[in-house]
Amino acid sequence: MRKSEKNAALLAISGLSLPSCIDFQAVLTILCAMRISCVALMMSCLLLASCGTTGHNVRVEPGPSWMRPWERPYWVDGIRYVPLLKADGFREEGFASWYGNEEHGNPTSNGELFDKNKSSAAHKTLPLGSIIRVTSKTSGKSTVLRVNDRGPFVPGRIVDLSYRAALDLDIVGTGVTPVLLEVLTSASGSTPPARRDEGGASYTLQVAAFSDRETARLLSEKLEKELAYSFIREVETERGRVYRVHAGKYRSRPDAEAARAALARAGYPDAFISRLP
Question: For 91-185, CATH number?
Answer without folding.
Answer: 2.40.40.10
